[in-house]
Design brief:
By secondary structure, the chain is α/β, with parallel strands linked by helices. The chain contains ten helices and five strands; from the N terminus they run βαβαααβαβαααβαα. The protein is 60% helix and 14% strand. The mean pLDDT is 89.
Length: 189
């Protein structure tokens, strides 16, 4: 059994890693989906209220609220799968929650890229308002770093620099799933 978590600033490539995992038959639990679902339950628009609800959940249920809500989904997938991806950790507190639950079977991968590269990717993606507005993106990054994302990135077991081509990045991700985090860490060093 292995649970692979991802952390990274918006546009770094976490979503692409998750998509490659899905295409390889690896189940993915997307922590952002927990927040989007809560937005809908509260009658709010996930595209505009995602950050507000992420903050509210942490205030109402604790800093590890999204991780806590994700754990049952991960455990359900582990009943019939050897590997599960958890997409989108945002803090060291969430990392601690997953390490407490899965011990050495939890591996955190930090996906990193320069701001300009990420901003271009987000412009192409256009999923929410911060994708098309550089100042909104900077504000979103500050919010996520305030959640403790920098701490989680610093504590990652593996760092993938996503600065090459999409094909190169997908090859690295495939290696992660086929050969394990150690192979990617060795290649990245």
């Amino acid at each position: 059994m292995r649970v692979i978590g991802t952390v990274g600033l918006p546009g770094s490539g976490k979503g692409e890693l998750a998509e490659v995992a899905r295409n390889a038959g690896v189940p993915v639990v997307t922590m952002g989906d927990v927040i989007r679902e809560e937005c809908r339950e509260r009658g709010l628009d996930p595209a505009t209220d995602h950050g507000k609800i992420a903050t509210a959940l942490r205030e109402e249920e604790g800093d590890d609220a999204i991780a806590a809500r994700s754990l049952p989904m991960v455990e359900d997938h582990l009943e019939s799968n050897d590997v599960v991806v958890v997409d989108g950790l945002r803090s060291g507190v969430e990392l601690d929650r997953f390490r407490e639950a899965f011990g050495d079977d939890f591996v955190l991968v930090s996906v990193e890229a320069p701001f300009e590269t990420r901003a271009e990717r987000l412009l192409d993606r256009d999923r929410d308002d911060s994708d098309t507005d550089v100042e909104a993106l900077k504000k979103r990054e500050r919010r996520e770093l305030d959640f403790g994302m920098g701490d989680a990135m610093d504590r990652a077991d593996v760092v993938i620099q996503n600065t090459g081509t999409l094909a190169e990045y997908r090859e690295t991700i495939a290696k992660l799933f086929e050969e394990g985090p150690e192979a990617v860490a060795e290649a990245d060093a």
